Amino acid sequence: MNWEPWTGCYKTSVGCEYCYFYGTYSKRHGQNNITKTNDFDKPMAKTTKGAYKIPSGKIVATCFATDFFLPEADEWRIEAWAMIKERPDLEFLILTKRIDRFMVSLPSDWGDGYDNVNIGCTVENQALADYRLPLFLSFPIKRRFIAVAPIFEQIDLSPYLGGIEHVTVGGETGREARLCDYDWVLGIRKQCEDAGVTFWFKNTGSLFKRGGVIQKVNPYKQHSLAKELGINIVGDSKLF
Predict the structure, then answer these.
(1) In degrees rounded to 5, what are phi and psi of residue 127?
(2) Considering the domain boundaries, does residue 239 fall inside one?
(3) What gap in Å lies between CA 226 and CA 180, rounded to an integer?
(4) How confident is the model at residue 24 (pLDDT cuts 50, 70, 90)?
């Protein structure tokens, strides 16, 4: 289940250049005007019989086609947090490249976090991991996951895996996609295994190197190929 309370986005780091949604070669390239959507109050929407349209127990991927912490959404985010609080029966996943803005418009009753909110921090290379993840770990968040997507190089996450529930890794999709090396993926998997953290190899990306061979992978086969490699560490995670 997806919830996109606003739409529009713009580049903030190297991973945004060829974004499948707003990047240089996407159909939505240039749509950087941030506006509310008709789904803004989706978690609170009810049927004619008074039942919530999103039933209890659902996982709600929030702002996966934009960024929850965009500055243009600071006022709207106050309302979004209020809706999230009113639906403790749902689990909200919020993924961001702007973790440095996490404390802006944070609810006064946030404390160390809401039980139904899982915050994900995206990193694409070692430099961004070393900048974003110490911030990520310093903020009051109950449930954390890391998304290394798209992955651009070998990354050492081991200093940052304490307090992390889950790590997702994926390659870049698109005609200008940069390389995803399977050895980088396996390196992060080993770090997760050592730290007791669940791991999901989400997709290979369009340009995948494995066993010294580089192959172009059809977008519709990238998830299934990653799954066929059988390297996921499932545990009790609900994130994949």
Answers:
(1) -60, -45
(2) no
(3) 12
(4) confident
Model confidence pLDDT, tens digit, residues 161-173 = 999 999 999 999 9
Q: How far apart are CA 203 and CA 236, in angstroms?
A: 21
What's the total number of domains in the chain? Answer: 1
Please return the burial class of 11, using the count of CB atoms within 10 Å of its CB with bins 0-12, 13-18 and 19+: middle
- Token code pair at residue 182: 């399977």
Q: Which two tokens stand for residue 19?
A: 């974004």
Is position 22 within any domain?
A: yes
DSSP conformation letters of 90-134: SEEEEEES-GGGTTTT--TT-TT--TTEEEEEEE-SHHHHHHHHH
SS3 of residue 2 by DSSP: strand
Q: Is residue 236 part of a domain?
A: no
**Residue 217: exposure state from Cβ atoms within 10 A (0-12, 13-18, ≥19):** buried
* 240 located within any domain: no
- Cα dihedral 62/67/68/73 (nearest 10): -130
One-letter identity of residue 106: L
Q: What is the CATH number of the domain that holds 8?
A: 3.80.30
